[in-house]
Write a structure and sequence with these properties.
Distance between the termini: 71 Å
Strand content: 5-15%
Helix content: 40-55%
Largest sheet: 6 strands, mixed
Number of domains: 5
Number of strands: 22
Number of helices: 24
Length: about 725
């Protein structure tokens, strides 16, 4: 049954529910394969949601379902489709498990400074200095590691390493930081799948030994960055280099913040927009060149040849910029579009996007839980669905001639900005906790600048670099970048341009994504059932209770959320990144320090403790502070140990005892979270209720997974972390 016939059938008034369901299935039959990558994504999320690693036998799970689906698809099509969806979900689960088992194991890094040596795989320019990535690094005289290490060189280091060189430097390296709080973004998981062992900073100047045989695209990337930075110094050159090579590390923080608050940060990350511009430039240039030569135009399919050249340029640009998820998605869709052009079929379709999503999930399933994949595919899915719904309007405007085409361009730019904002804002809110209110206005100016001035001039400069003639093209690119930065700063300065907001919880984001898929993948009016799903996902934060107290994994900071704002206690060396992540999780801009003595909304403090009761209807937590020394520390020689933090100090109405130091002694059955707790189990979150306290540690939240370091074992008492008496 065709879609038109099915819709006519459904219009009949006297149909039973079963008949209508059969009509819906017939009308939507051609679209159900679009749900296969959605099912794969569900399987990937199921894998990452586990608390224990499954066995290798689970990798065989998809094949029985997929085989049965193929066997039943002709005789029992509905059963075959259902089995295919189950098999796709199992395939996503198995793909994630396979990549996790294929990854190199975690590396144990020394606690003290060590000489790190290895081959330079990449060099990132920073606002001050350089950062190098070493492949197969050695620590001192040990064997080479299977994972890479990143080292930030000293700002005044005269060394200028390039990819392919050998480098040795004395550095302090650490494993990737754990989540800032239970449920926050997992840097250790991202590093595990990317092959990174850890990162650190140099203590001495680096020793560089030049060596031939640099990786092609890494060396080309470094050369382009150097040429662009020489021609366009400062933030203009840093942004220009980022657009051409994908590295944002050299962009100054104020410029990044302005573009982010204006909703223009996506312009800095090579994505579908950039690869589409590159492919489009190649396509238009070659086709115009062929058309300008009549003899050649009569003998060559200009459209097909231009499509192949544009795809080749897009592939080179994808590899040059590091082949990130948005680039891989865009290149995969471009390859399908090229094939469609060569075979005379439709170039852009939901099936092309579904196939691209399936390929990315098969080869990089870990990308699904990152913002890049979610925002990229969500944006393109919404744009394709909107283009399908606006076909009638598009045809009518094109039939009006030049005025209609001009109106189509204006409407297209405005609609694109609105659709992109609506589709990506929830993902950005979940990951970054910020709302950019004027992103549509900023993008309406900045996207045309990037599309018609910045990127064309940048690509022309890249082609002219071998001849040393890139100067004029880079100058034009710099003018466009300066104009884009001006737009970003202007919009970011508007009142309320970017506001902090509590992030959408993970389950709410999943519900929004499901609603978005339901709205965009189906064709019948029942697709609009996706709108309430999306609305429920957006409102999910209203029924989610954030933690009242957070304690950092390094034991140097804690914070309590009160109706009047966030109050924090920080020790020397507390992580600024952790603090910013906490504030985003609560939708706050800043935190005030806990008073040393006195009262504040929700807290009552003395020099030795603080009673924390954020709300009047909940139990209280007691923060125990380090008592002052009875005698001053001597100027020379070892200082005596500080007085212990005693649990008895907080006994009474405390539902939980917390401290940035080890707590000694007991207070009945009152639970405690102290320095030893976070040293062993990572960051902690505490929810206070009338009946007591609920405590969740990062280790309990993530479970025993390959990217979670094992629980530390105390070393000899002389060098171990101080333990509580109960231990």
């Amino acid at each position: 049954m065709s879609a038109h016939a099915a819709q006519s059938f459904l219009a009949a008034p006297a149909l039973t529910l079963a008949e209508r369901a059969a009509g819906w299935a017939a009308a939507e039959w051609s679209r159900w394969p679009l749900w296969l990558p959605v099912a794969m994504g569900a399987g990937v999320l199921a894998y990452f949601g586990l608390r224990a690693e499954p066995g290798a036998a689970w990798m065989a799970l998809p094949w029985p379902f997929l085989t049965l689906s193929l066997l039943l698809r002709r005789r029992y099509p509905l059963a075959g489709a259902a089995l295919a969806l189950v098999g796709a979900a199992a395939l996503g689960f198995a793909a994630a498990l396979f990549h996790a088992r294929a990854a190199a194991p975690l590396a144990e890094l020394p606690r003290t400074a060590v000489v790190v040596s290895g081959r330079v795989a990449a060099v990132d320019l920073l606002p001050e200095g350089r950062r190098v990535t070493l492949e197969a690094p050695r620590l001192a005289d040990g064997p080479p590691l299977e994972r890479a290490i990143r080292v930030r060189l000293r700002n005044n280091d005269p060394a200028r390493p390039v990819p392919g060189d050998d480098l040795a430097v004395r550095a302090l390296v650490r494993t990737p930081m754990p989540p800032a709080y239970p449920g926050a973004f997992d840097f250790q998981r991202a590093a595990f799948f990317s092959g990174l062992a850890g990162s650190g900073f140099a203590l001495n100047p680096a020793e560089v030994t030049p060596r031939a045989g640099a990786p092609l695209f890494a060396g080309l990337r470094a050369a382009i960055e150097a040429r662009v930075s020489a021609a366009l110094p400062g933030e203009t050159g840093a942004v220009s280099a980022a657009l051409l090579t994908g590295s944002q590390s050299a962009i100054p923080a104020p410029a990044l913040a302005a573009l982010r608050d204006a909703g223009l940060a996506h312009l800095l990350s090579p994505s579908g927009l950039h690869v589409a511009i590159v492919i489009g430039l190649g396509f238009v240039t070659l086709r115009a060149g062929i058309a300008a030569i009549p003899w050649l135009a009569l003998r060559v399919d200009s459209k097909g040849a231009a499509a192949v050249l544009g795809l080749a340029l897009g592939g080179a640009y994808t590899l040059l910029t590091g082949a990130g998820v948005p680039m891989l998605r865009s290149f995969a869709m471009a390859a399908l579009a090229t094939l469609a052009i060569l075979t005379g079929r439709r170039a852009l379709s939901p099936r092309a996007l579904a196939l691209a999503a399936g390929v990315v999930l098969l080869f990089a399933p870990e990308a699904l839980v990152g913002p890049s994949f979610q925002m990229s595919f969500g944006a393109v899915l919404a744009l394709i669905a909107a283009a399908e719904g606006m076909r009638g309007l598009t045809r009518r405007l094109r039939a009006m001639g030049a005025p209609g085409r001009a109106a189509l361009v204006v409407i297209g730019l405005m609609a694109t900005s609105l659709i992109l904002g609506a589709a990506t804002t929830p993902f950005g809110l979940h990951h970054f906790g910020r709302l950019q209110l004027y992103g549509v206005a900023a993008n309406a100016v900045a996207v045309p600048l990037t599309s018609f001035i910045v990127m064309p001039a940048g690509m022309l400069a890249a082609f002219l670099m071998p001849l040393g003639l890139e100067g004029p093209a880079l100058a034009v690119m710099g003018w466009g970048v300066d104009a884009t930065l001006l737009v970003g700063r202007t919009v970011a300065a508007w009142p309320g341009a970017a506001i902090a907001a509590p992030p959408i919880p993970a389950w709410g984001l999943g519900l929004f994504a499901l609603g978005l898929c339901w709205l965009c993948l189906w064709g019948l009016p029942w697709r609009w059932a996706g709108v309430p799903m999306m609305a429920a996902g957006l409102l999910s934060g209203l029924v989610t209770t954030p933690p009242d107290i957070l304690i950092a994994a390094d034991g140097r900071m804690l914070a309590v959320s009160t109706p009047a704002g966030v109050l924090s206690e920080r020790a020397s060396g507390a992580s600024r990144l952790t603090r910013e992540s906490w504030l985003r999780s609560w939708g706050e801009e800043d935190a005030a320090p806990l008073p040393r003595s006195g009262e504040a909304p929700g807290v009552v403090c003395t020099p030795l403790s603080c009673l924390l009761r954020p709300r009047v209807d909940v139990a209280a937590a007691v923060l125990l502070r380090q008592p002052p020394r009875s005698v001053p520390a001597p100027r020379r020689g070892p200082a005596p140990p500080p007085p212990p933090v005693l649990a008895e100090t907080g006994c009474g109405e405390a539902a939980v005892l917390i401290s940035l130091e080890p707590i000694r002694g007991r207070c009945g059955d009152t639970p405690r979270v102290d320095r030893f707790s976070v040293w062993r189990d990572g960051s902690h979150a505490i929810w206070l209720a009338a009946a007591g306290a609920q405590i969740l540690s990062d280790r309990a939240n993530r479970g025993d997974r390959p990217w979670v370091p094992p629980a530390p074992v105390p070393r000899a008492r002389a060098g171990a972390e101080p333990l509580a008496e109960a231990e």
